[in-house]
What we know:
Residues 14-305 form the NADP-dependent oxidoreductase domain. By secondary structure, the protein is of the alpha/beta class.
Amino acid sequence: xxxxxxxxxxxxxxxxxxxxxxxxxxxxxxxxxxxxxxxxxxxxxxxxxxxxxxxxxxxxxxxxxxxxxxxxxxxxxxxxxxxxxxxxxxxxxxxxxxxxxxxxxxxxxxxxxxxxxxxxxxxxxxxxxxxxxxxxxxxxxxxxxxxxxxxxxxxxxxxxxxxxxxxxxxxxxxxxxxxxxxxxxxxxxxxxxxxxxxxxxxxxxxxxxxxxxxxxxxxxxxxxxxxxxxxxxxxxxxxxxxxxxxxxxxxxxxxxxxxxxxxxxxxxxxxxxxxxxxxxxxxxxxxxxxxxxxxxxxxxxxxxxxxxxxxxxxxxxxxxxxx
Length: 323
């Protein structure tokens, strides 16, 4: 598989987001998801994304660690800290204190069954702790050999610049798809600093696949029920836009998912989308997006579709606290 550079870190051109394999998008099957991770490795994906708050008690890290047992050396593992949950899964807040950073990484080691993390992110900025203090503690982890590279997720440009002065930031992880383009405001600065982009939810939380046709398709505990993009008239209007994306896909004899991923891949040479899926068939479909050729006329149509999206689905601490 094609490789891309995130700063100095070389990864597969497409990663696998593991968030939905444990929680947030309905009930998951462990055997199925582990098989999907193994299939990803077999097909050349080596970049796997998780976080200590995915799944109650960090169960997503545990799942990924189990899947990578005996194959750890073939994988680039990224995980995150900072969103604190209790034993029942309730979100307690954001913690970026240096002491917490050091304890969180050790807990991630235990769950992942590893003694190093390739790319370690602060999941969300802690408004009570200067970013210099948090990244300073993360930098100490690099010096001790516990972490190879540092990243930040869901931060603004000013915070990113301040953090990079403390220690080189390898990747900015942000929501990015053809209808979630806010992070583009940070592109000039990230290019200047040599920071790559890891795009989560590149398929609009699954909506751009065309598989979701009714609000009721979301199970009761599905996080997507909480975003205005998927509610009421917004849902129906956005569904019409997905139909237009499917028209482009049919002309090219591919799927809407593949068009959406191909669009993301075209935006920068140092951008790596991390679509999530539990099913092998969706995994192979996503990988095939690497060979989709979008022409100038296609991009014009896609940009027009993106400009008409209504509602939001930004992840925030307020949203998390409603789960």
